[in-house]
Write a structure and sequence with these properties.
By secondary structure, the chain is mainly α. It is about 50% helix and about 5% strand. The chain folds into two domains: about 60 residues, Arc Repressor Mutant, subunit A, CATH 1.10.10; about 80 residues, no CATH class. It has seven helices and two strands; from the N terminus they run αααββαααα.
Length: about 150
């Protein structure tokens, strides 16, 4: 899975915002994570449109989470910033169809989608901040092979 900078930056900004607990400016969030401020501003606009953050003006203004950090999953953020978790040539895996020797390839793509969902739909911002991942996700990280590039 390719995780674009837009998604990485968005998640990092949301984690910083959740940890702060009060509204923060885009400049503050960018500074805390070493992110390009203008790019983060555009990301925050997308997150606001998706209902993940809300913005308020004034002296106490800035961005805040639109719902609690334990109700925002990594999948929510990825979908808001990059679209579906898994696509094959612009189609959802369940919408693909193959013939001949590739007839069963659709099942592989659906399994990949299910695997991504089993992690990304279960891990919330709170989980990442606290370092307490759901047990099935934490178990995946204990396999030494998971840490080796292939």
């Amino acid at each position: 899975m390719h995780i674009p900078a837009k998604v990485d930056y968005g998640i990092r900004a949301l984690l910083t915002l959740a940890a702060a607990g009060t509204p923060q400016t885009a400049e503050y969030l960018a500074g805390e994570q070493g992110l390009p401020s203008r790019f983060l501003g555009a990301i925050l606009v997308d997150l606001r449109r998706a209902g993940i953050v809300a913005s308020q003006r004034g002296a106490e203004g800035g961005y805040r989470l639109a719902r609690s950090a334990d109700a925002i999953t990594l999948a929510d953020v990825i979908r808001a910033l990059d679209g579906p978790l898994a696509e094959v040539r612009g189609y959802r895996p369940e919408a693909t169809s193959y013939g001949g020797a590739a007839e069963h390839l659709q099942q592989v793509w659906v399994a990949v989608q299910a695997s991504l969902r089993s992690v990304l739909e279960k891990v919330t911002l709170t989980d990442v901040i606290s370092g307490t991942l759901p047990p099935h996700v934490a178990k995946m990280t204990t396999d030494p092979d998971a840490w080796i590039s292939h």
